[in-house]
Amino acid sequence: MNYNWDWNIFFKSTGIGSEIYLDWFVSGLGWTIAVALMAWIIALLLGSVLGVMRTLPGKVLPAIATAYVELFRNVPLLVQLFMWYFVVPDYLPEPLQIWFKQDLNPATSAYISVVVCLALFTAARVCEQVRTGIQALPRGQSAAALAVGFSIGQTYRHVLLPQAFRIIIPPLTSEFLNIFKNSSVASLIGLMELLAQTKQTAEFSANIFEAFTLATVIYFVLNMSLMTLMSLVEKKVRIPGMMGGAK
Amino acid sequence: MDALLQLNAVSQAYAGKPVIDNMSFQLAEGEIACLLGSSGCGKTTVLRCIAGFEPLRGGDIRLNGERIAAPGYNKPAHLRAVGMVFQDYALFPHLDVAANVGFGLRGLGDGERKARIGLMLEVVGLSALAGAYPHELSGGQQQRVALARALAPRPRLLLLDEPFSNLDVDLRQRLSHEVRGILKEQGMTAIMVTHDQQEAFAMADKVGVMHHGHLQQWASPYQLYHEPASRYVADFIGQGAFVPAVISGPQCVTLEVGEYCSLTPLAYQVGAQVDVLLRPDDVVHDDHSELTAVVKGKVFMGSEFMYTLQLPSGQQVLAQVPSHHNHAIGEAIGIRLELDHLIAFAR
């Protein structure tokens, strides 16, 4: 193949103001991180609540959480994103609609849509992991906490969740990485995150290969760093004798 | 004095199958009781009902006069002040020993909490291990921590669910004596569930024998052994053989080997056909006795032999004999019956 690689392209001017192409990537990475982190925080909180709900006694709360999981897990992510961006705003009350469509700048409304989409989608998956983490604990644990006078809420807070979260750090790490990768769908509704900037660079400069190579490297390094960070966390909080330690 | 714990006609069922049937008993403050029965007899379910982990189908449970459970009403487990020790210890693996023991002591100030933890660890003899994690402890140590954790918040009642069954025999015996000592010293009222009668006898003031969800008898270990209320209890507790006999007086029976009279009256008409229970310790080896039996089998048990003896009619009985009387199988030996407590059931 006769292709002239030109790695200097990232330091050349884009022709727009004094920006060079690398600036676009930096800005794109910023949006990617902003989307993923915000969505992750919401997903973790909501998913934990739903996961706990699925393990509670009674029928109503578990049923609500189960319905949520089925709904958000069985509809493709992209369909969900288009619903949140194109369909749902039309059904908002009038003042909210005007605010979302006219007062906000397009990047902000796209940001809100994609954060809501990724957060709710990932919450369903976090819910399942929290549930399995709780259910993996011996049944005596909650009985033991109740027998020394802890309420159900305190039992979750001090006995079940501290153990369950430690168990599920590895699968939660996958979800955490997924949310960074899934954030690339934002490029389809015009949010200039990393993938959108990559495409724009490719189109402006015609250096398609360089642009996508750099994007690949950035995603890879980003996810590798997060994974390393999470395994450090896992080691730090590991309970000796539980999960892989000798009994 | 009113009983601390009262079960009145308690019933429980899973999927329509009765697990506890019309069970009643009372426990006075400071008493230790054991529920004894083979697995599946419903004994653990009784504990779970008292602890508040299972709703009742019938009857009610009162603690200190207060109704804590009845059909449609279940006082939440964490408000009952009923402590529990579990078969698998259920220590919290993410907390060290001191934190496990102090877990139920939220209401106390820091100083008081520390003092209580220190005291409880001293009581169970684990002061040196306050900073250890559960996985670093042996089974016996873990169960001691579990006991200290359950006792620390000063429960009204302590429930122990097969607490020693994961331990080896030596440790089990030692720990059951130790635990009885600790409970008595603390004045704790307790109910233990076990399938091991030695353990029940060693621990309990009162023993309840359960079978298929029925409480067969609620009595002291001595009474259970010497005055079993039913054929099932007589068979389940201790060893022995049933020998046919005829009632020959208000307190006497005639066996194939002669007439024997009890210290207590028998509840049968003269002439009634009964089976009399002969315990191995009722059959005494006596070289001078005219009555002989043939040794059919023997089991060496250290300080004694358990002989299986055959009477002239072919009826077999067990005899516990000091082990310096070493007889060969097939040999005829002199025996004598000591039947102060005649146990007879209608045939």
Automatic annotation (TrEMBL), chain A:
It is found in: Cell inner membrane; Cell membrane. CDD domains: TM_PBP2 (cd06261). Gene3D superfamilies: MetI-like. Residues 29-230 form the ABC transmembrane type-1 domain. One of its GO terms (molecular function) is transmembrane transporter activity. InterPro entries: AA_ABC_transptr_permease_3TM, ArtM/GltK/GlnP/TcyL/YhdX-like, MetI-like, MetI-like_sf. The chain crosses the membrane at residues 29-50, 71-88, 108-127, 208-233. The keyword Thylakoid does not apply. It is a multi-pass membrane protein. PROSITE patterns: ABC_TM1. GO terms for cellular component: ATP-binding cassette (ABC) transporter complex. Belongs to the binding-protein-dependent transport system permease family. HisMQ subfamily. This is L-glutamate ABC transporter membrane protein /L-aspartate ABC transporter membrane protein. It comes from Vogesella indigofera.
TrEMBL record, chain B:
InterPro entries: AAA+_ATPase, ABC_SmlMolc_Importer, ABC_transporter-like_ATP-bd, ABC_transporter-like_CS, ABC_transpr_FbpC, Mo/tungstate-bd_C_term_dom, P-loop_NTPase, Transp-assoc_OB_typ2. It comes from the Bacteria. GO terms for biological process: quaternary ammonium group transport. Coiled coil: none annotated. Keywords: ATP-binding, Cell membrane, Ion transport, Iron, Iron transport, Membrane, Nucleotide-binding, Transport. One of its GO terms (cellular component) is ATP-binding cassette (ABC) transporter complex. GO terms for molecular function: ABC-type ferric iron transporter activity; ATP binding; ATP hydrolysis activity. It holds the Pfam family ABC_tran. This is ABC transporter ATP-binding protein.
